[in-house]
Each structure stands twice: as C-alpha cells, then as structure tokens.
Amino acid sequence: MAPEEFDRDLTDLPAALRWREWMRRIEAVLFASAAPVAREDLARVVGQGASVDLLIEDLAADLEGRSFELARVADGWVLRTRAAYAPAIRAVTTARDQLPDLSEFDLAVLAAIAYHQPVSRDGLKDIFGKEISRDLIGRLSARNLIGTGPREPRRGAPYTFVTTDRFLMAFGLETLRDLPDPEQLAEAGLSRA
122: burial class by Cβ within 10 Å (0-12, 13-18, 19+)? Predict the structure, then answer.
C-alpha cells in the first residue's frame, strides 16, 4: 500500500473550513509533542502562504476559558495546563510524573546556572564557596533541566552547564529574559546580592 500523500493546502475545502483544519493540525502537533515545536515545523502542516502566526493567535483565542493554553517557550510553542489547575494535577499524578522535588540547594545551583550560564563546576564553586557534587549536576541533568554547554577554553577544557527548554517549561518562562532581576530578588529577601 502506497503512503498517503499529505495535503497541506486543502484546496478542496472552503476557506473558513481550511483555516479551521489548519488550526486543528497545529493543535494536534502541539498536543502530541513533549517539547516546544518551532514555527518552521508548524508551517509544514499548513498550506503555503498560510500565516502560522495568525493561526497560532486564532488557536490561542479558541483555547480561552479552557484548562490548557498555548504558550511560547524558547523558540517554539507548547500546549500546557494553566497554572490554576496544577493542584488538581498534583492530586492525581505520581511523584515520578511531576517535576521532581528539588532541595533548596539544588534549586540554588539551578538558579546559578540559569543566571551565569554557561558555567562550569569551578564557576559554581566560586559562586557557592564550596565544591558542587557531580551527583547534584547529574540529578539536574537527569531531569533535563540542564545540559552541557561549550567547554571552557582552559587547561582540561571542563564542561560548562546551561539550562534547557525543559527548564523554561518547568518554570513557565518563554525565554531566560523572563527570569526575575537579581536585584529585585535581593530586595525581596529571596537571594543574597
């Protein structure tokens, strides 16, 4: 059996139905993806000349009042549950399905990586005044909150660490520019400046 040809343009449908079908295709792709989907990838499921940006706007409006929303994360789009429903989800999911509990120190190291990336273990040692264990780095990496960055240009070329798209998704950020300003955190008593 020959593979079915994918009809991007849907020229046999009236314009309004074609637009609605393109919106549903984007919704289906986002629903099925565990990672943010880039605009260029979404463009592969709609007709040539169709505006992915306008389709995304219409889909976001269509989802108003629903329990999930369309969100921009890094260089792509995701469907995610609205924050108001997080307690309901936590009530029925197992601990391994949730963002794992991180110790206060794990979160501090993760924040240091986010604010100082790319940063090596030596760089983290300078920030915290003590050695950061490979186990801690491994825990953050296993949860896909951090990944390796470029190697430092010095003897031994140690690895550096950077945050991932999963980090952005886990903390509801579109980009790293959405991180709170360190001075504001210090003024609020949430960090040491």
Answer: middle
Of 111, 107, 136, residue with least CA distance to 121: 136
- Report pTM: 0.61
Inter-residue long-range contacts of 134-141, CB under 8 Å, 24+ positions, other chains counted: 136/105, 136/106, 136/109, 137/109, 137/161, 139/102, 139/106, 140/102, 140/106, 140/109, 140/110, 140/113
Torsion of the alpha carbons at 107, 175, 84 and 99, rounded to the nearest 10: -40
Give residue 188's identity as a one-letter amino acid code: A
3-state secondary structure 105-119: HHHHHHHHHHHHCCE
User: What is the separation of C-alpha 135 from the centre of its chain, rounded to a whole number of angstroms?
Assistant: 24
pLDDT digits (tens, 9 = 90+) for 96-141: 444 557 888 998 899 999 999 999 999 999 999 999 999 999 999 9
Q: How far apart are CA 146 and CA 149, in angstroms?
A: 9
